[in-house]
């Protein structure tokens, strides 16, 4: 039976995910072997297959864990009683901060999603769609209430913002001049300026 934790109490699944994330980010999903992952995590292949059915399952979980966090946070923001402009700004900034805080996960996803099997690819697309639809509903609420301009369709507004988010992994550097929150504030402000009537 595989041990569930190591000497410092880190659960084996988290060790495997951490090792896979590091390796996928450094050398790419397709150039990373299962053997390299288990060696980096300090476990056996049996332990990996006990928790994850395949390398594909690890790739799916790398992105799914980020999307779960982002969805929970978006739902919490959207469900508050704050004015719609505040909720949109908070949601727009939050997705930037959480993406930067998990930059390896995000970059792995955008570089490697095509490696997912058809069923997992379909699941990820459905999860992303749910997130985008909730974000779009906020934009539509603001447009319907007259707070935001209706000149640009809500779908295009969402694509505009998420296009910026998806490119963060290509240019953002932790040692650069802007903190994650500063980048988030700038991008959220740009979005709100574009939405004002």
What characteristics describe this protein?
197 residues; 73% helix; mainly alpha
Question: What is the count of helical runs?
Answer: 10
Mean pLDDT: 91
Q: Tell me roughly what share of residues is in helical segments.
A: over 70%
Cα end-to-end separation: 62 Å
* Alpha carbon gyration radius: 19 Å
Main sheet overview: none
How much beta, percentage-wise? under 5%
Strand tally is 0
Low-confidence stretches: none
> Based on helices, strands and strand pairing, what is the structural class?
mainly alpha
How would the global form be characterised? Answer: elongated
Describe this structure in words.
This protein has helices spanning 12-27, 34-41, 45-51, 55-78, 84-101, 103-112, 118-144, 154-166, 168-171, 180-195. With 197 residues, it is an all-alpha fold. Helix 1 packs across helix 6 (103-112). The radius of gyration is 19 Å and the shape is elongated. The relative contact order is 0.12.
Write the layout of secondary structure elements.
Elements: H1 12-27, H2 34-41, H3 45-51, H4 55-78, H5 84-101, H6 103-112, H7 118-144, H8 154-166, H9 168-171, H10 180-195
Compact summary:
The chain has helices at residues 12-27, 34-41, 45-51, 55-78, 84-101, 103-112, 118-144, 154-166, 168-171, 180-195.
């Amino acid at each position: 039976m595989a041990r569930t934790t190591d000497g410092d109490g880190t659960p084996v699944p988290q060790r495997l995910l951490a090792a896979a994330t590091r390796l996928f980010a450094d050398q790419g999903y397709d150039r990373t072997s299962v053997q390299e992952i288990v060696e980096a995590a300090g476990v056996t292949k049996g332990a990996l297959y006990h928790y994850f059915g395949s390398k594909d399952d690890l790739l799916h979980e790398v992105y799914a864990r980020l999307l779960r966090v982002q969805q929970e946070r978006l739902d919490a923001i959207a469900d508050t009683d704050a004015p719609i402009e505040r909720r949109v700004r908070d949601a727009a900034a939050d997705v930037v901060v959480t993406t930067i805080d998990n930059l390896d996960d995000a970059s792995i996803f955008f570089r490697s999603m095509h490696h997912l099997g058809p069923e997992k690819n379909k699941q990820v697309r459905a999860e992303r769609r749910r997130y985008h639809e909730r974000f779009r509903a906020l934009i539509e609420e603001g447009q319907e209430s007259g707070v935001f301009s209706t000149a640009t369709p809500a779908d295009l507004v969402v694509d505009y913002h998420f296009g910026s988010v998806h490119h963060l992994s290509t240019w953002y550097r932790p040692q650069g001049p802007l903190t994650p929150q500063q980048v988030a504030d700038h991008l959220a402000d740009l979005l709100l300026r574009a939405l004002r009537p």
